[in-house]
Automatic annotation (TrEMBL):
The gene is Sec14l1_1. It comes from Jacana jacana. SMART domains: CRAL_TRIO_N, SEC14. It comes from the Eukaryota. This is SEC14-like protein 1. May play a role in innate immunity by inhibiting the antiviral RIG-I signaling pathway. In this pathway, functions as a negative regulator of RIGI, the cytoplasmic sensor of viral nucleic acids. Prevents the interaction of RIGI with MAVS/IPS1, an important step in signal propagation. May also regulate the SLC18A3 and SLC5A7 cholinergic transporters. Residues 221-233 have a biased composition (Polar residues). Residues 321-497 form the CRAL-TRIO domain.
Length: 717
């Protein structure tokens, strides 16, 4: 079984000029006392350009890997050799380092790329980045051991990299070297250097698209998008994360944890077109899955889809909690705990959960809890700024004084479980500590009902005190400053949290009333979901009367890869038959899956393709539009995207065979929304469409709606 591990570093910024950093870097060779495993290095190849701007040097490095003796014996080697090729360009002020292993190169493939470049906003600073991949094909049955050793050695070296440069900078300073002049072209060969191929075209007459101008643009864009106060723009070139920012705003992460964050964030930027959650929120999902990048990506995508489907951001902006909640929901924010975490106080024992559910329904309660969680995220961000260190979770103090059998009312407990489930899924790792105070005798019963639904990581953070134990040693004072202990717990701080109390029966509503209201607010969503199976696409019919209309669509691929098509037909397709024996009615209980295109229809005769097919990968959000040329029937189709077999042979690849064995891979899921607009209204309504359905605004620091729509296919008029 091949294992591939990838690593991507944050940007490390040295506040020293490139030339000085190079002088420090060169001192690592031929050996370096700070890296004991780096035993020796020999120069194998060297090239210098005539003007000395380019210097390429290839070294063979001898490493003494810290591995168990037995393993070395089995492998039959004492040392491992690497080839490292350094390409220095003094004119551009860059150093690129490529390294790969020579020993065992048929069993293990290690590739590393590092680069030192000039900081885009300050030419006297230097940026460093590195990425690497490790692919273990086979190693005498010790693959996982080798992987562990390699990862351990590698991450410890990453940490050392910075210390080494700083060590040699200090050494240079002690020798009185604090400045190294920049390269300047030698006077004699001025002519040659301008024709040298490294030079970018300077002639202003012809407009040659120059990579430099493109980079300039990116920086500008970056300044625009991250102007929201929550993102420090200082020193992050090109929207990458730098090491100092991570330490200050996100915490002490190991190199592999940093790498996971950077890779997941990069993936989101590529697939979610500018609408991505804040870094600290992405990190919460990674923590919730122990930094398993695939699992974290899955729950994060589900959460983004959920936010979009239920228009969470829109609801939080526009919804005012009903008066009943403001009067009878006994919870509220109250200062912060000793660690600087926001503190939420909930007087659950004083709260009439049954009355609230009867008067409001679960939906309104759930929505209220969501707004509390969103406020928690905001307070964490605020406290991170105030306390000068990363704070990513809050503390919850639950007072159970007054809890009774009424709280065990089944629908109330069910509502509670559903709310816990939604919060666990969409706000992972936000609860830093839960203090449960004055737990009565019924509490263990409630606890056994609820605890199975709570994630293990979260459960570790619970502290439960019976009676007045919270006043004793190891009690509340360990976690909360004396000055802010609320009055109802015997403290001196006035606590604004509502007292709760029984909800009057006159406010209760019937199931029907609640049902009607809920549908309007919550469960009804403008998006519809559909399932797509191999051999069973999902098709939607749109009838166009006015020839120049605009069909718009906005969809998310929740699972699997699909191909999106749009067809035109002069005659109406037959309404789909609900065949009771069809393959997909068995596989998809309740899955929305409709075929309209008749099996006997021929493409080009009965119907035609009006847009080229668009392949959409799992997790992508796609928005687009099509200007219709003819009246008639248009069919939007989402089709299963099957991987083509290997180009060179007709044999399917091993992974494809494996993939096709997993039944789940035969089902894709799409969530879509379509609308037809008259062409004269098109420009205006398109913007409104984008602003109202960009689903993640509250979560993302930079909400640039994806106006370079995926397939804005204006057909020649």
């Amino acid at each position: 079984a091949a294992m591939v591990q990838k690593y991507q570093s944050p940007v490390r910024v040295y506040k020293h000029p490139f030339e000085l950093i190079m002088a420090a870097y060169e001192r690592r060779f031929p050996t370096c006392p700070l890296i004991p495993m780096f035993v020796a290095s020999d120069t194998v190849n060297e090239y210098k350009s005539e003007d000395e701007a380019i210097h390429v040097i290839e070294r063979r490095c001898k490493l003494d890997i810290d591995a168990p003796r037995l393993l070395k014996k089995i492998a039959g080697v004492d040392y491992v050799y690497f080839v490292q090729k350094n390409s220095l360009n003094r004119r551009e002020r860059t150093l690129h380092i490529e390294a790969y292993n020579e020993t065992f190169s048929n069993r293990v493939i290690i590739n590393e790329h590092c680069c030192y470049t000039v900081h885009p906003d300050n030419e006297d600073w230097t940026c460093f980045e590195q990425s690497a991949s490790l692919d273990i094909k086979s190693f005498f049955g010790f693959e996982s051991t080798v992987e562990k050793i390699a990862m351990k050695q590698y991450t410890s070296n990453i940490k050392k990299g910075k210390e080494i440069i700083e060590y040699y900078l200090k050494q240079l300073e002690e020798e009185g070297i604090t400045f190294v002049p920049r390269w300047t072209p030698p006077v004699a060969c001025k002519l040659e250097s301008s024709t040298s191929h490294m030079r970018r075209p300077v002639s202003p007459a012809i407009n040659i698209p120059d990579p430099a101008t493109k980079e300039g643009l990116n920086n500008k864009e970056m300044l625009n998008t991250s102007s929201s106060p929550s993102e420090p723009t200082a020193g992050t070139p090109d929207d990458k994360l730098d090491a100092d920012y991570i330490k200050r705003y996100l915490g002490d992460l190991t190199p592999m944890q940093e790498s996971c964050l950077i890779r997941l964030r990069q993936w989101l930027q590529e697939t979610h077109k500018g609408k991505i959650p804040k870094d600290e929120h992405i990190l919460r999902f990674l923590r919730a899955r122990d930094f398993n990048i695939d699992k974290a990506r899955e729950i994060l995508c589900q959460s983004l889809t959920w936010r979009k489907q239920h228009q969470v951001d829109y609801i939080l902006d526009t919804w005012n909690p009903p008066q009943v909640l403001q009067d009878y929901y006994a919870g509220g924010w109250h200062h912060h705990d000793k660690d600087g975490r926001p503190l939420y106080v909930l007087r659950l024992g004083q709260m009439d959960t049954k009355g609230l559910v009867r008067a409001l329904g679960e939906e309104a309660l759930l929505r209220y809890v969501l707004s509390i969680n969103e406020e928690g995220l905001r307070r964490c961000e605020e406290n991170t700024k105030v306390f000068g260190r990363p704070i990513s979770s809050w503390t919850c103090l639950v007072d159970l004084e007054g809890l009774n059998m009424r709280h065990l009312w089944r629908p109330g407990v069910k509502a509670l479980l559903r709310i816990i489930e939604v919060v666990e899924a969409n706000y992972p790792e936000t609860l830093g500590r839960l203090l449960i105070l004055r737990a009565p005798r019924v509490f263990p019963v409630l606890w056994t009902l609820v605890s199975p639904f709570i994630d293990d990581n979260t459960r570790k953070k619970f502290l439960i005190y019976a009676g007045n134990d919270y006043q004793g040693p190891g009690g509340l004072l360990d976690y909360i400053d004396k000055e802010i202990i609320p009055d109802f717990l015997g403290g001196e701080c006035m606590c604004e949290v509502p007292e709760g109390g029984l909800v009057p029966k006159s406010l209760y509503r019937t199931a029907e009333e609640l049902e009607n209201e809920d549908i309007k607010l919550w469960t009804e969503t403008i998006y519809q979901s559909a399932s797509v199976f191999k051999g069973a696409p999902h098709e939607v019919l749109i009838q166009i009367v006015d020839a120049s209309s605009v069909i718009t669509w906005d969809f998310d691929v929740c699972k699997g890869d699909i191909v999106f098509n749009i067809f035109h037909s002069k005659r109406a397709p037959q309404p789909p038959k609900k065949d009771s024996l069809g393959a997909h009615s068995i596989t998809s209980p309740g899955g929305n899956n409709v075929q309209l295109i008749d099996k006997v229809w021929q493409l080009g005769r009965d119907y035609s393709m009006v847009e080229s097919p668009l392949i959409c990968k799992e997790g992508e959000s796609v928005q687009g539009s099509h200007v219709t040329r003819w009246p008639g029937f248009y069919i939007l189709q989402w089709k299963f995207h099957s991987m083509p077999a290997c180009a060179t042979t007709n044999l399917p690849r091993v992974d494809d065979v494996l993939a096709s064995l997993q039944v789940s891979s035969h089902k894709c899921k799409v969530m879509y929304y379509t609308e037809v607009i008259g062409s004269e209204d098109f420009r205006g309504s398109m913007t409104s469409l984008e602003s109202s359905h960009s689903g993640f605004s509250q979560l993302s620091a930079a909400t640039t709606s994806s106006s370079q729509s995926h397939s804005s296919s204006m057909i020649s008029r």
